Amino acid sequence: MKNIVEIEGLQKIYDMGEIRVHALRRVDLTIAEGEFTAIMGASGSGKSTLLNVLGCLDASTAGTYRLDGQQVNQNEEEELARHRRTKLGFVFQNFNLLNSSTSLENVELPMVYLGIPRRERHQRAMAALERVGLAERVGHMPWQLSGGQQQRVALARALVTRPRLLLADEPTGNLDSHTSEEVLGLLAELHRDDQLTVVLVTHDPDIAACTRRVVILHDGRIVYDKPGPNHGGPPIPHIRELAASLSAEQVPQADPAGQPTAQGGPAS
Ligand code: ADP
Ligand code: MG
Predict the structure, then answer these.
(1) 213-218 sheet: strands from edge to edge
(2) Rounded-to-integer distance, Cα 208 and Cα 201, Å
């Protein structure tokens, strides 16, 4: 099976002048076509940084990234933008919809950048909204929709360009548990029926358990990479305990809670 993601020796250092934050420390990761992967880890462990590099939203400091068989030149902003438009779909915790545009307009937008003719844009956006169960809400504004519905619009927007890789950073972080299950169910369905390759960042072990592969980051390193418990893998270890045991072994100076030594970023 073809690899969609091949990452080797990926490092990301945020240079803050006085301090350098090692957000990713030599990460190697391969993701095959059609995989459904959860990325977990404590707040500040590097999950969003990894997802942003995968999503060509940010460049790494060192290391190589092949996306869908193509070397990504991470310092070429135009190339990154082209990958984002043509190969990648994103879903964020805060939905990131345009507030003064309807569901339909939000979903049509990425196709405008691809130069797809108006008529086809309309047809594809309608089909994508139908796919996520929002055929009746195409003319609604984001503020007229529930959080779960807004996230489904965001999902339709991510899918309408037929990406090779869907990236979701805490997509259920702002949703109640019932709505979270709905959104997750939709992702699982897209993975199963459309062979969509999905990488999902989540705090929630119940959500991670539904994926096929669970990767745990600790302090910028991958410390766990196993099949999900609903797919023949072991129970997901408790992140805090795992982090504490690793800190005891590897980083004697880390604090007892096992938090990364260079902390201070946004929660999650
Ligand atoms: P997570 O998503 O797992 O919570 P992040 O990838 O956001 O973790 O952050 C990893 C580390 O990098 C943290 O220590 C965070 O403070 C730091 N970091 C993230 N983004 C920036 C930034 N733009 N500037 C400086 N440091 C950052
Ligand atoms: Mg994050």
Answers:
(1) 88-92, 165-169, 198-201, 36-40, 213-218, 221-227
(2) 8
Give 136 Cα–ligand 2 centroid separation in angstroms.
33
Q: 164 CA to middle of ligand 2, Å?
A: 22
**Residue to substitute in 39, 40, 49 for testing ligand 1 pocket (most ligand atoms within 8 angstroms of CB):** 49
258 lines ligand 1 (CB under 6 A): no
Phi, psi angle pair for 96, to nearest 5°: 55, 45
Pocket test for ligand 1, best of 11, 13, 21, 58 (most atoms within 8 A of CB): 21
Give the predicted TM-score (pTM) of the model: 0.89
Burial class (CB in 10 A: 0-12, 13-18, 19+), 132: buried
Give per-residue pLDDT as tens, 154-198: 999 999 999 999 999 999 999 998 999 989 999 999 999 989 999
Ligand 1 atom closest to the Cα of residue 41 is 3
* pLDDT for residue 203 is more than 80: yes
Q: Domains in the chain, ordered, with CATH?
A: 3-87+163-249 (3.40.50.300)
Q: Which residues of 183-206 are buried (b: 16+ CB within 10 A; e: fewer)?
A: bbebbbebbeeeebbbbbbbbbbe
CA–CA gap between residue 262 and residue 22 (Å, rounded):
7
Q: Indicate which residue's Cα is closest to atom 7 of ligand 1.
A: 48
What SS3 state is found at 81? helix
